[in-house]
Amino acid sequence: MVPRQAVTLEMARSAATASDDRVERFGGRLGWFVSVPFERRTYLNLAYLLLAFPLGLAYFVFVTIGVSLGLGLTIVLVGIPILAFTLAVGLALAGFERWLTAAMLDVEIEPRTDLSGERRRDQFVSLVTDRKTWSSLLYLPAKFVVGLAGFVVATTGLSTGLSMLVLPLYYDRPGLYVGLVPDRAPEISQTLYLGWNYLLVGFDAVFTFGHWKITTLPRAVAAAGVGLLLLLVTLHVLNAFARVSGWFARVMLEDGYDPFAVVRRSL
């Protein structure tokens, strides 16, 4: 029979071990959360998302103009070479996106470097009937939406967080404002009306957002703490968004024909 004192001691040791494990897990998660500004991967992801906006805009303009112009002039046969040119350049740009995604996000996307058939005509038919050809071309204007979303999150979250983080350095300067300062406090109005027989039943809810005026150093330090938290959260959100962007690029671009890769292999 095991003495009661020994059982109690063993239970205390088990509880202490479980407590240490929880503390260690919490410390690991806290370290992961706080260390995001010091990781190289964070800034590669940020650079990729910031580049996605101008690149996506250029892709969107090129594809929409090329396709619309080519389809509009197809009736006079001039549009066919324009469509072929748009397709060829689009596939090369998709190849560049594969390389960029692998270099900056460390996401390898395997391309297709050969076409089915021995004759040129058979190879062309194989190219235009492959769904991966069109998913690669569709990825180019879609990247504009991805780039715009990443650009808005990055600029809004990082600029707001940084301005709040350095607030203790300039909070007492007169005539200086941080953020959007409208003439009146912004309001959000929610309205719901339901018809019931001859009655119109409605519900109005108005939410008014005020502002926080910083006039003392303790408030400025508190705002700086909020800004630091906002920066860390924004960086983690951007990292997650970059991972989703890499997954989207792999789904759309993998196994698509890549003339860019063909040229690189021949060099």
Automatic annotation (TrEMBL):
Transmembrane segments: 46-69, 75-96, 144-171, 221-242
Pfam families named among the record's database cross-references: Sensor
GO molecular function, one term: kinase activity
UniProt source species: Natronobacterium lacisalsi AJ5
Keywords: Kinase, Membrane, Transferase, Transmembrane, Transmembrane helix
Protein name: 2-component system sensor kinase
Domain of life of the source: Archaea
Positions of the Putative sensor domain: 48-253
KW Kinase (keyword) present: yes
